[in-house]
């Protein structure tokens, strides 16, 4: 386990043959059966993100990027402004203790594994 893994960071590069927009990439993968679940295209602030179902409020597999360059990552912040605000409020109420589930535990490790498996599956599609 490297230092990034210890902190819950997992970023896997997608090696795509085409120069896809995020919407085009979503269309290519939306019917694929992923271990992380069914992907959805979600507006997150000013950007679009391909997000998989949340494992809990601190763990989600996401695909980010643009201009044909994408990464699959484990995110401690599920997409959506509403979820960000809810997590911020809960962290404030608990003095930051509620965020520890995103930094430690089996769910974090499982989410990191699913990020790697998702990237491997997309890369194997040869798109």
What is the tally of helical segments? Answer: 5
Class from secondary-structure proportions: alpha+beta
Mean pLDDT: 84
- Span from first to last CA? 30 Å
Largest sheet: 5 strands, antiparallel
Strand order of the largest sheet: 1-5-4-3-2
Q: Ranges with pLDDT <50 over ≥5 residues?
A: none
Shape: globular
* Beta strand %: 15-25%
What level of helicity do the residues show?
Answer: 25-40%
Radius of gyration: 15 Å
- The domain count comes to 1
Q: How many runs of DSSP E, i.e. beta strands?
A: 5
| H/E element sequence | HEHEEEEHHH
What do you see in this structure?
The chain has 127 residues and is α+β, with helices and mostly antiparallel strands. The chain has one domain. The protein has five helices and five strands; from the N terminus they run H-E-H-E-E-E-E-H-H-H. It has a five-stranded antiparallel β-sheet with strand order 1-5-4-3-2. A hairpin with a 2-residue loop joins strand 2 and strand 3. The chain is globular.
Describe, in short, the structure shown.
This protein has one domain (3-125).
Please outline the helices and strands.
Layout: H1 3-6, E1 11-13, H2 22-29, E2 40-44, E3 47-51, E4 60-66, E5 69-75, H3 81-93, H4 100-103, H5 106-125
Antiparallel strand pairs: 1-5, 2-3, 3-4, 4-5
What are the defining features of this structure?
single chain, 127 residues, alpha+beta, 5-stranded antiparallel β-sheet, globular
